[in-house]
User: Fold this.
Amino acid sequence: MNRIYLDRDWQFSETFTEELISSPMEKGEKVMVPHTVKETPFHYFDESIYQMVSCYQRTIFGDPAWQGQEMILTFDAVGHDATVYLNGKELGRHRCGYTAFSVNLKDAIKLGEDNLLTVKVDSRESINEPPFGFVIDYMTYGGIYRDVYLTIKNPVHMYDVFYQPKLNGTPNTVGIDRKQLIQMRMTGEIVTEMQLSPRAKEYASQRKLTVRQLLDGQEISNQPLSEEGKTSTLAGKVGIWDIENPKLYELTTQLILDGEVVDEYSASIGFRDLIFKKEGFFLNGRRVKIRGVNRHQSYAYVGYAMPASMQRYDARILKKELGLNAVRTSHYPQSQDFIDECDKLGLLVFTEIPGWQHIGDAKWKDIAVENTRDMILQYRNHPSIMLWGVRINESPDDDEFYTRTNAVAHETDPTRQTGGVRCGKKMSLLEDVYTYNDFVHDGTNDGCEPKEAITPDVEKPYLISEYNGHMFPTKSYDCEEHVLEHTLRHARVLDAVASHSDICGSFAWCMFDYNTHKDFGSGDRVCYHGVMDMFRNPKPAASVYAAQNRRSDVLCVTSSMDIGEHPASVRGDTYIITNADSVKMYKNNVLIKEFFPSDSPFKHLKNGPIAIDDLIGDEMMKNEGFSRHQNELAKICLNETAIHGYKMSPKVVWAAARLMALYHMSMDDANKLYQKYIGDWGGESKEYRFEAIRDGNVVKTVTKAPMTKVKLNAKVSHTTLVEDYTYDVAELRLSACDEFDNVLPFFGENAVVTVEGPLEIIGPKTSIPFRGGMSGIYVKTTGETGSAKLTIRVPGANPLMVDFTIEKAEA
Assistant:
């Protein structure tokens, strides 16, 4: 099999005319795939700007060596209705913007000369296919936004291969650590189902075709192939694919005719045992609570059009930065590169058919059923995929329609269960798992509802597919109290879900802020629903997820400790979020208190947020000569007043009365103590230092003190970019910080950006605003190699310079 990528050398026009079917465009724009029909502003734009009928063209040279071969042209995704022509002849039409499709060039191509390839792309939202037909809470963009490639095949070939690896027996991974999991081995077996070309079937029926399989390069099977195209092979002792040990194997299947390999297919596979049960979700014999978020596939400026590096980067952020074990690809199938990276990282995937609330007419439903089949055929070899979503997200019941989608799913992949995302209780349940968007939490009540209150059948599994999101939109530059409440709402839901053993898990809405239609969001065409901003800069809520594992050291303090940020200078609650063994809090280098995970009110979370309930410690014993008892009574009064204001709670009244009766203290004494130990007005500035302790060592420090300078920080996805079959992109996540690396949440200056060398900035080219003290820059390669430098300047800070190297991919 010879795959030739065709991502380069396209001509693009925002208008399509019938003449372009067979005639080259005269004034086209030269573009590369992935491509969006219209770059957009960050926000405040009308979604109509990407809705158009556009045209893409390029030439394909018909190599004479292709004579007698099959020539399959594949588009990994085109948004949203694509018609393909070669030399004026229509080869096929595809009506889904989220799945791949192929056309055969054999009957239209001219060998030995250039051939004109034309693609008509309709990205209007008025077309009759999912997800269109009503309002949609996300932008749908348009263009050839995933790869295009030509595959040259022998007429004797496989056009679909389904690998079904399994373990002989259920592994018992309960209570074992990662080291033991890595060492575990079990007997594996692989069932392979091949769809054969007519010529391959003919040879197979004559017993002339042999199939050989290699696992990581080692032959495990060599046998005659029947025309049914199904084999079963023992793989020997194999390692286990798991979220803690995503062991992958490269499985290659070869068709051999007369001693010659005429076709070959390879994919990464994993041997694992996973199942949703009424009691919960079980992976390799142990109960695992699914902890994930929803992900859109969009990016600032270019919508869906990002190459493999950025798709894979999102998966790494989810696993390594947020510490999650799962992701839902809302509300459509996403990049194969993204799912590949989920396979490698051990990130479970719940993927679903395109759609949002609306069900269309009979033709629309037929397309949705076909979308279901295409999704499963194209993604079923990925070990990370755990569940197929076969309902239109949040749509009403339609038993006839969803009987069809379920039947297609189980017919196409009998190895996995199905779910369907709803926003209603006790709805019709045709799928294997009741998946439900639980938005019950409003900040004052339980984080989620119990299973029996939602599902019509408690004997079937139950999974929460969305929570929070629109219930409490939060911008990175919102006031501190608002951002804290956003953070706590995520903690409350996670804690509540953890308390219900029969809930398989939950997916937060959502990973990052995203552009949306006029009917949704904050009026600027953005839904601020993410635990990260649009550039994947974390909001404090992100730390709640990151703290649930030890992939990295987490320490977040939810306040700047500036009293003027709060009404009446009352601090309100401040929380420490960490995965350390403890956190020591110092004020002006004096230890105030050591906090432990057990101090958290979130008792069902491994590492829940910990409230700071003491701002004084034992200083009054040392400085004022107070006894332990007097010190504790005074602390109650001062801390309660500092944190909650002059409310005179029963607790404070009791402590004040004791202080007056036993120690003859007056209100004037209390005011002086408050100014000395709590108040910051005109006195000595307070510096707070928090040290995260693990195994007796300080692993991370956060210092809160009055800022005296601004510094620029950048988290760069990668600095070596590779020019391969298409361009590469790197992301810089920018933050304006104080000298202690605390993000300055109200910093809103513009950054002046200059680039030297073979790199190009995506979006605004020279001036990039900060929002909430954070921003982002995407840079792309231009086809050349060499060195490049990006320089970023903001008022009051030293310039930040980032060096890049651009290389050519190995042949």
Summary: The chain has a mean pLDDT of 95. DSSP finds twelve helices and 48 strands in the chain. The chain has five domains: 2-153, 158-269, 289-549, 563-704, 711-808. The first strand starts at residue 2 and ends at 5.
